[in-house]
Amino acid sequence: MFVGAGLALFFMPAAWLPSYYKPIPMGIVAIGYSFLITLPTWVFRPSRERDWFQIALALDLLLCGLGSLGFWNISIIGMFGYDKLIHFTFSASMMVTATYLLSSHNRWSMKKTVFIVALLIAVSGVAWEYIEYFFAAYFHFGYFGTLFDYDSRHDILANILGVMAGLIVIRFRTKRRDLYINVITKTP
Q1: Comparing C-alpha atoms, which of 70, 67, 69, 96 is closest to residue 155?
Q2: How far is it, in rounded angstroms, from Cα 69 to Cα 86?
Q3: Which residues 6+ apart lie within 8 Å of 17 measured at CB?
């Protein structure tokens, strides 16, 4: 789907697109998204955790792509816009799925994996703001503000809240699994 969208953006007449579209960079990004979704199949052995990670990544990138097509302007609840929703959901879903994937693949403890993934998402959230700034400043691409302005700081806050939501999901699932194991092992 992303490759098709990227190729369509390359070959579609610019007159058919809204004026704020940058077809060539947007096409490159769309094709890059397909590469990112495929990358885990080259790095991780087949597993349920890898599949869930790829599904979450594909959905998150689809939501980002929709933002680039104009959804960034949508305000969902007052000052809470589509942009903040994407920062939150991307961070939350990556926190959960990457934690289970890396823990399973590397046989790390959940505590170690949670710490590493949370740190990676925190660093990625700040890097995301630099990437948005770079594309806005040099390619005039996107709806991005100034680096670390009000909007940018709230994007990072949404990332942090997403990580916290992911931690809650992981904790709930771990407690539920431990309860299940305790019931199974105590049954005669």
Answers
A1: 67
A2: 14
A3: 9, 23
Residue labelled with tokens 């060539």: 24
Tokens of 59: 């959905």
B/e letters for 17-26, b = 16+ CB within 10 Å, e = fewer, are eeeebbbebb
Going residue by residue through the chain, which has 188 residues, state the pLDDT in tens, using 9 for 90 and above. 899 989 998 998 888 887 777 888 888 989 999 999 999 999 999 999 999 999 999 999 999 888 877 777 776 556 568 888 999 999 999 999 999 999 999 999 999 999 999 999 999 988 988 887 887 777 666 555 667 787 788 889 999 999 999 999 999 888 766 655 555 666 55
CB atoms under 10 Å from CB of 100, counted, come to 21
Q: Extract the tokens encoding 163.
A: 């990580």
* Contact status, residue 70 vs residue 142, Cβ threshold 8 Å: no
E strands along the chain, which residues?
Answer: 75-77, 80-81
CB neighbours of 163 closer than 8 A, spacing ≥ 6?
91, 92, 95, 118, 121, 122
What is the H or E stretch that residue 118 is in? helix 110-139
DSSP 143: S
